[in-house]
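Lay summary. Proteins are chains of building blocks that fold into shapes, and those shapes determine what they do. In this project we predict the shape from the chain. Here is one chain we studied, written as its sequence of building blocks.
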Amino acid sequence: MREVLPELLRWWQAGETVGVGTVVGTWRSAPRPAGAAMLVGPEGEAVGSVSGGCVEGAVYELAQEVLSSGEPVLQRYGVSDDDAFAVGLTCGGILDVFVEKVSPETFPELGDVAADIAAGRPVAVATVVEHVDPAWLGRRIVIHPEEADAEGEAGADAGSAPYSGMTLGSDRADAAVVDDARGMLDHGTTGLLTYGPDGERRGEGMRVFVSSFAPKPRMLVFGAIDFAAAVARVGSFLSYHVTVCDARPVFATATRFPAADEVIVRWPHEYLREEVDAGRVDPRTVICVLTHDPKFDVPVLEIALRLPEVAYIGAMGSRRTHENRLERLREAGLTDAELERMSSPIGLDLGARTPEETAVSIAAEIIMDRWGGRGERLAGLSGPIHHHHGHADEPPLLPHQLSAT
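And here is the predicted shape, written in a compact code that computers can read:
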């Protein structure tokens, strides 16, 4: 949704009604992730993509029908022997697309949500995409982190919808979804939640799609060397908020690192400790220690490897440097379990030589860790191309499929 938000907001501000198709669930090798969206504008304009081209035509037609009827629809698209080259995903994937109409009347809070996203304030939108009672479909609530409510920014008590008058259909459902969605927002996770018809924790009958708009995840690059400049460029390309930190002011300059969001002149371990204490290091943060100088990298790795949870910790250096580093870290009291969290030598074995190639190698390892990849040639493997942590290979049945079984 973030990709198409500027165009959606422009139409919304003009008072127009737009058809919006959003990927709410994916299985197997679906080409776009949950949250990918496609718009059908007031003059029939198509903006965005839900499948990279496989089912855009079908979603476009469905969006026009929804604009005409006003009734939201959850539609499944997948491949079969009969329709692989008609309406379906020739890649073998399955995806659920929720199609609705969006206007100032149906989504009056969109402007506030867009303002939160633009300002980097965490916000989530929870929408009912499946329910035994069709009247619930399309109902949504906007959710902020709990601490924002405690400060009065959202004007609501913890556990309730931030905007007055917003409800999914019952206080019980609202409370359950707000609680769970806040947990997803903390981790920047977008996906489906399943409940009983009234928000029961155990049961089926209601599925809610949570779009989390969290600030960019952080990439902390320690060591203002030429390899760090290339890593900063790749990190920015991958939508990380990139910080380069080094204690040497002659090297740590914005001119040398134009792709970084910020360049900090500090001892790395001091800066990391301050960021941790301030709550600015979270499970999405990746840490790249590129100094390969023990007076810099050992103190910062002592802190990093003892953090309860971060997405990735990598350290640059030869195998000899790595062995020396391990010895120093053990002397500092780190356990084998803590040391195993460190990727060193950093990156995947791509045969990289230049800073740019090495940055690609590091980025590839970060992506592999994020999605559970294996770092092998896809041509030599079988099975799904895309990995989905915590998701089943097969989707749950939709209501009309249940009635047919």
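What the prediction tells us: The chain has twelve helices and 15 strands.
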